[in-house]
Amino acid sequence: MAGALIKLAFGLDEEPLLALDKDANVLATLTKLEESGLDLSQEELYGLLYGTNGLIPIINNKLNTSGVPATDYTAFLESVFEEFIAKNEGIGSGFGITAADLKQAFLGFREAVGTQLFDQAVLELAAAYYTYTHPVVGGGGGGVVTDTTLADAKNALAAIKAKLATATDAEKQALIDEALKVAFEAIAKLAQFNASSYVREVDGKAVVSLTASNLAQLFGNVEQLKASLVDAIGADNAAKLKKPTLLIDLGNVTLSSSVVNLAKDIAAKASELNFGFVAIKVSGATTKFPISAVNGDVIFTLDRTAASTAQTGGRPAVTDVFNYGLSVNGTVYDEFNEPVQIQIPLVNTTGIDTELTTVLKIDGSTQSVEGGVYGDGVLTENRYTFSSYVGVENDVTFSDVASVQSWAGREIKVVAAKGAIEGRGDGKYDPRANVTRAEFAKILVEALDLDNPNASSTKFSDVPANAWYAPAVAAAVDNGIINGRSETRFDPLAPISRAEIATMISRALQVAKGVQAVSDVDVALANFSDASTIPSSLKSGVALAASKNIVIGNEGKFSPNANASRAEAAVIVYRALNVEAE
User: Fold this and answer.
1) What gap in Å lies between CA 72 and CA 512, rounded to an integer?
2) What is the C-alpha separation between 380 and 279, in angstroms, rounded?
3) Is the pLDDT of residue 6 over 70?
């Protein structure tokens, strides 16, 4: 019977296995069993294999938790045997059998069968078990882009290389820029990994476990494309390529809780290829991490539940509630040094004004408005902390905006919905009052999602550390948005001029949306008859804002030194919010 089973399972004769009777390691373990006086009945043997603390349940539980070992499973087996000995004290303390004894006996069996064939059989059996006990709960499919993206991009880069050979200096720069654009757009497609076929249900959760080997084809395609880019424009120019994002998409998952396990070699390989971010997408909800935040063995969790009125503070919910968790190398992180971008999909837009949607952070029974930009069915917001978040329609009204309603009413409402501007008490906005430099710094960094709780600039002596505007000023300084009225003086409570407001907006757009400075400042300012009165240090900023129609003159004049009102500030920020990223 034993011989028949051996032939059925491994296609081998039983002689190599029978030779184990003479193997020194096996004999040593058997001797321990004999000396212990161990005499197991069939039922007792069955219990050691299949009982509550038996080998099979322990193996199954570990497969459920960590998935199928990718290649080398000896460490996996060692942990199984250690747990088996610990749970069956009589085996260890009573009979002197150790986990190492069991492991050695197993490896002897493996060697007798033939390591390559045995490994293949074990891994296939483990994978079959895992697939059977963990049904796919993703959207189906899986893998990397299989269209002509790579070939098309390589052909385009080869054509650019040919043109560079005879191009003028001016033409060369345009061709280099084109090559960088071609490569970045192609990598953005090639770096999307469809992980839906890897998702399994474990204890009511959607679980996926990936290593770099699963993404080998994706990484290989990116390496090929980057090599083609270097060949086309040279290594120095290729180094200017924007850092792309590696996207791991679980597809549409029907379960409310998801767990994503990423082995440390994924981030290591992504870093080697100069990726800037790793994004995880679950049923349309995307979380984008800087590489530095996921540099290790990652466990990312995302729980999704329907929003209650208490959680939204009575505001109409437009998304579910999302609760995020992250651990790296066993350490839990809920605060970050760099922003983590969350995108949460809207599930209810009936009767909703999507421009008034915003992200709420839920902290027990209280909520805080965090902002967020709506587009393509999702709310996008950068976060430095993980918590529970929900998207809502936040309709804020003020009683004193009738006089500016025709040109600023909508803009005030939208910017207030994002939490970037606030009233001055009693339901009033005070639209015609001057906006101060401190107020505008706060409005700007919050509206364009540049606020940073880790910012700690102490550049200005007239910005007390405990001032309400200090965090916003620090974030603006760190982002290069404000320089102050001298090296050490910000003048926070002074009114802000139109030229200053335009310059701060322009610098913020360059940071937040990658907007490029105008190439000809004088041309951009040509429509303003008083352009010569704009301070020289602010001209480029005003020119950029004018080129994007963020600042508009009145009767041909810009009036750079006039103070900006709170209504004007809301209009300018609203326009900036609607500038497309470059």
Assistant:
1) 45
2) 13
3) no
